[in-house]
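Structure tokens please, single chain.
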Amino acid sequence: MKNLKLSSTEFSHGDRIPRKYGYTEKNVNPPLEISGIPDETESLALVMDDPDAVKPAGKVWDHWVIWNIEPNTSQIGEDETPPGAVEGKNDYGERGYGGPNPPDREHTYKFKLYALDNTINLPPKSTKEELEAEMEGHIIEKTVLEGTYAP
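Here you go.
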């Protein structure tokens, strides 16, 4: 039974992400709420990416890569890194959150939350690909929150 849920008080699933969370605006992460975490969860990981960037950028653009979020975390505040969590490198070449910045049209952004049966042993500045390799075989449950953003 899938109970893991990710939501935001700033936008509903499939709705527009407010402008202030954009890369050229305030560039802070939106507040997120987490519920339904499986009991056997050792840590949470979160990836925000933009699959619509494949055409203009030639790849899925990674905006936020974060792992070792405590399993009892029920929310991530606006412009907040959860205590003890590790942020990896986004495709802007920076550590931490890099907001939406579509170059051509409205894009759909995916916030993917993973409940893991382990903790991740990766150095800061690791990439989404490195995180996904470490998570393989350890994902208990996954959920996705989608939002759109237009230039």
